[in-house]
Amino acid sequence: MLNPGIEKELPAIPAKRYFTIGEVSELCGVKPHVLRYWEQEFEQLKPVKRRGNRRYYQRGDVIMIRQIRSLLYEQGFTIGGARQQLDGDSAHDDINRSQQIIRQVRLELEQVLHVLKR
After folding, report:
1. Cα 39 to Cα 98: distance, rounded to the nearest angstrom
2. What pLDDT does residue 8 have?
3. For the domain that residue 90 is a member of, what is the CATH number?
4. 6: Cβ–Cβ under 8 A, 6 or more apart, which residues?
5. 9 in a domain, yes or no?
6. DSSP characters over 62-109
7. pLDDT digit string (tens) for 64-97?
8. Quick one: pLDDT at residue 101?
9. Which domain holds residue 56?
10. In a domain, 64, yes or no
11. pLDDT digits (tens, 9 = 90+) for 24-57
12. Helical (H) or strand (E) element with 33
């Protein structure tokens, strides 16, 4: 493990269309400057840019960032190795993304159930 506490549970992704870089930073446990660097290193990561070059990330971007974070911080890949993993077996990547989406939807449904039980 590279950093104690790096494997802490990440918060659920809210049901929003766009997220600011600050929101994504909190949702993914990564500092904004790291997100900007990853944009240069991973072609899959392309947030929408609007007024004044402000970045707006979509849900798929947040899931991709969490996958990159996992590859780098939890699985110990280098940037190049993580890039190869993401470029490599697309079926394997699709399975990973699907599993992440399923986990996220489950968390959101559990939150809804908790609110309904009140």
Report:
1. 22
2. 62
3. 1.10.1660.10
4. 29, 73, 74
5. no
6. HHHHHHHHIIIIIS---HHHHHHHHHS-HHHHHHHHHHHHHHHHHHHH
7. 999 999 999 999 999 999 988 888 755 566 677 7
8. 82
9. 21-117
10. yes
11. 999 999 999 999 999 999 988 999 998 888 999 9
12. helix 32-41
